[in-house]
Amino acid sequence: MNLSKKTYTSLAVAALAAAGLISQSFAATDADLVNARIKPIGQVRINDGSTPAPAAPKAAGGAKSAADIYKKTCMACHAAGVAGAPKVGDQAAWDARMAKGIDTLLGSVNKGMGAMPPKGGDASLTDDDIKATIKFMAEGAKESAAAAPAAPVQTAAVEEKPAPKKKEPAPEKSAGEKTYDTTCMACHLMGVAGAPKLGDKAAWTPRIAKGNDALNASVINGLNAMPPRAGNPKLTDADIQQAVAFMVEKSK
Which residue range forms the structural domain that includes residue 9? Predict the structure, then answer.
């Protein structure tokens, strides 16, 4: 006869009670306490499909929002239009790209395009993450109005202030600076892959000593990690000469 541990325990406690060694009321309590102490620490359940499996725990922190992905990964280039990236807010540039279809843009991001590495440099992004962020940027990277806190109601009297002076328009950028902004900045702003940072006098001094003609030739032919014409085949020799002259002037 096979008896469980719980049954053996109950019989033993009952025998002690019958012998008068413990009281009947204590016997019931003591048996429960003993059974609780010897209870197995776990149980094995075999699911035949009739009982639904427990839900998997949700990942901490929840899903990434398109706004968070933009700020962490995309803003560095798309806020200012670095290296030809369509600038957020440039509706004409985004309308032309969205006309190709979201799946085409998804493929470009996944594979990388121009100066942009695959997945914008964040390998953890899913296709859904990328699609949501593309739509977010195409719509001007505007935060949801529902998520923004409501402005407090102004109750106190507000002192009238004189209208601010109209700002003078920014001076027109030179052709060399424009080429730097769209092509050269991607590497020379942060010193990527050994590129001399703009304004780093120590790095530029030995290069400037070679003369602008030598520097122009290095850009046209490519040097080390820099591809020919800095990866932009549309640049003319004149464009390159102007961009080199701009960087040299800013780094003296």
Answer: 5-37
Beta bridge partners of 226: 223
| Average confidence (pLDDT) over 116-131 | 86
DSSP H stretches of helix in 22-139: 24-37, 66-69, 75-78, 91-98, 102-111, 127-138
Contact 65, 73 (CB under 8 A): no
- Return the amino acid letter for 41: I
pTM for this entry: 0.38
- The answer to whether the beta carbons of residues 134 and 94 sit under 8 Å apart is no
- In the predicted model, is pLDDT for residue 213 greater than 70? yes
Cα–Cα distance for residue pair 77/133, rounded to 1 Å: 14
d(C-alpha 167, C-alpha 162), whole Å: 15
**CA 27/CA 69 separation, integer angstroms:** 64
Q: How many domains does the chain have?
A: 3
Same domain, 70 and 30: no
